[in-house]
Design goal:
about 500 residues, alpha/beta, Rossmann fold, Isoleucyl-tRNA Synthetase, Domain 1, seven-stranded parallel beta sheet, 19 helices, about 15% strand, binds 5'-O-[(L-methionyl)-sulphamoyl]adenosine
Length: about 500
């Protein structure tokens, strides 16, 4: 089966921040997990470069929009390897191939009769030569950039007949209760459709920074239509010579934040229907990261958690783990450096890291570094019964935090097992040799299974650990607790999560 998963594409008028990192990490966890299961995966991310905010930010810095876009797109692109993101492509909406495809698809929407010319009215800044949207203008209707009074103006725009898609969208929602997840977001989107839809502006007449409207070159497409189409256009040129559209369209999962639900759950499927293209299978909506004080993160409040700071201090795996563990995926959550430290010490260093290092040390000390080739403990095995299926079932619904919790319960189970079996008491007693061997083999199997399942969350540390126990395979078939070990060699491992000052 093919599995096509995307993040939202980031605006390049700002810098990469924790919200962006969060979405990329969560999407990467799902992509890596599906690859483990042998699915053919394509994972797309990128940057959204056209539109007023980028043109405005460039103007404020006295440079061309393309220059600003080039500079900032690089910063977003550079974020991906630092997060260990396994994206297959990075799209920029200023890519020529993207722009040409946007024109082609929207021309079809036009030719299919879903577009008409109408009058658009809004708040206009003569210095920006641009309309401002209601939620960005300052008090007394002033420009957010120039702070001058905006004027109420009209212009001719092309409109998309969104209103005619109310019924088709209601049918889509009726037939696909998982079209939007989680459920509260599905209800929100459906209620929006049920309230009735208004046509939306598809073009801007006075802007130049965008994709030109092919049938009216004085206009550019409204940035959201250009941006949404990235999910489709990328497949045409991401890999030269390969027909990715046939393999991967429609997308399996769009992962997005709650602020852009309407565009993905309403505009996007309507646009695809208008272009006679299949609609995506699921839109997964995550919540917002807030500062440790529970307020929106902002520099002026001093409550910003910077992804680069966390990576520098604790490592990429720790950041990935922390975000997936501490913020229930789908809901909002507060994040802060103290909470990162607490999870790092209590769970990564003391639970998982310690389990790994003591298991390996005991195998080295008591059996010269060879995992005994004996039966594993049936009772411990039972506690892992059904685990891979349960984890897969949760991740099929993007429930990344619950899945991680199931795995973590086994980390704790194995630590308890060490205490119960106390290998250091068995070791000196020759009559307990069998019990000791079974204990060591079972622990090795426990950390192997746990590490295979944790791999999508913490790719680097789990790879190191699996290598150290001579069992590097990460495919999902190997996530079942085996009845026997075949006698692999282990080697000592530097602490996975060293203590920090
Ligand atoms: N460019 C649009 C998306 C176009 S998709 C066709 C956009 N860009 S954005 O840079 O503002 O946001 C990108 C993604 O990051 C969105 O899904 C958004 O919800 C998410 N986040 C931005 N800030 C966030 C938090 N503080 N917390 C979690 N995610 C948030 O919207």
């Amino acid at each position: 089966m093919s599995f096509y998963i995307t993040t939202a594409i980031s605006y390049v008028n700002g810098e990469p921040h924790m919200g962006h990192a969060y979405e990329v990490i969560a999407t990467d966890v799902l992509a890596r997990h599906m690859r483990q299961r042998g699915e053919e995966v394509f994972f797309l991310t990128g940057t959204d470069e056209h539109g007023e905010p980028v043109a405005d930010a460039a103007r404020a810095q006295g440079i061309e929009p393309k220059e600003l876009a080039d500079r900032n797109a690089e910063r977003f692109k550079a974020l991906m390897p630092r997060l260990e993101a396994s994206n297959d492509f990075f799209i920029r909406t200023s890519d020529e191939q993207h722009m040409a495809k946007v024109q082609e698809v929207l021309q079809r929407v036009h030719d299919n009769g879903h577009v008409y010319k109408g009058l658009y009215e809004g708040w206009y800044c003569p210095q920006c030569a641009d309309f401002k949207v209601e939620n960005e203008i300052l008090e007394d209707n002033r420009c957010p950039i120039h702070e001058i009074a905006l004027t109420r103006e009209q212009e001719e725009n092309w409109f998309f007949r969104l209103s005619t898609f109310q019924e088709p969208l209601q049918r889509l929602y009726g037939e696909n209760p998982d079209f939007v997840m989680p459920r509260n977001r599905f209800n929100e989107a459906r209620a929006f459709v049920d309230r009735g839809l208004q046509d939306v502006s598809l073009s801007r007449g006075r802007m130049q920074w965008g994709v030109p409207v092919p049938w009216d070159p004085g206009h550019v497409f409204y940035v959201w239509f250009d941006a949404l189409l990235n999910y489709y256009t990328a497949l045409f040129y991401a890999r030269e010579g390969e027909d990715l559209v046939a393999r991967f369209w429609p997308a399996t999962y769009h992962v997005i934040g709650k602020d852009i639900l309407k565009f993905h759950a309403v505009y996007w499927p309507a646009l695809l229907m208008a272009a006679e293209l299949p609609v995506p299978r699921h839109v997964f909506v995550h919540g917002f990261l807030l500062g440790a004080d529970g307020r929106k993160m902002s520099k002026s409040l001093g409550n910003v958690l910077d992804p680069f700071q966390v990576i520098d201090e604790y490592g990429t795996d720790a950041l990935r783990f922390y975000l997936m563990r501490d913020v229930a995926f789908g809901g909002d959550g507060s994040v802060g450096i103290d909470a990162v430290k607490a999870r790092y010490e209590a769970e990564l260093a003391n639970e998982y890291g310690n389990l790994a290092s003591r298991t390996i040390s005991m195998i080295v000390r008591y059996r010269q570094g060879t995992i005994p080739a004996v039966q594993t403990d049936g009772e411990l095995a039972q506690d892992f019964d059904g685990l891979p299926d349960a984890v897969a079932g949760l991740l099929d619904r993007a429930q990344a935090t619950q899945a991680l919790d199931l795995i973590w319960q086994r980390v704790r189970r194995c630590n308890r097992y060490v205490e119960e079996r106390a290998p250091w008491r068995l070791a000196p007693d020759p009559a307990a040799a069998d019990a000791l061997e079974q204990t060591l083999a079972s622990l090795a199997e426990g950390i192997r299974v746990i590490s295979v399942l944790l791999h999508p969350y913490m790719p680097a540390s789990t790879t190191r650990l699996l290598g150290a126990i001579g069992s590097p395979a990460i495919d999902y078939a190997g996530a079942a607790f085996a009845a026997r070990w075949s006698g692999a060699r282990v080697h000592q491992l530097e602490p996975l999560f060293p203590k920090r000052a």
